[in-house]
Amino acid sequence: MSPTVFRDKGYRFFFFSREESRMHVHVVSGDGEAKFWLEPGLKLAKSYRYSLRQLREIESLIEGRYDELVCAWRQSFER
Length: 79
Known about the structure:
Blueprint: E1 4-8, E2 11-14, E3 24-29, E4 32-37, E5 43-48, H1 52-64, H2 66-77
Antiparallel strand pairs: 1-2, 2-3, 3-4, 4-5
């Protein structure tokens, strides 16, 4: 199971069910994919085929909806 939290500018932001305990979000689009740690702070974990410009855009989108992502993570995994 990989619930989508939101879509924006052609990117899908989602979680993999019980992949690992550290809070993070996956991002995918037709151009590539990435994983960002949400805690202890927002940080790129890995990326594939995204340019630096795209990674900055993705990071900005995550920052703008950070609280929503954290809340969705907790609702999905901290039961």
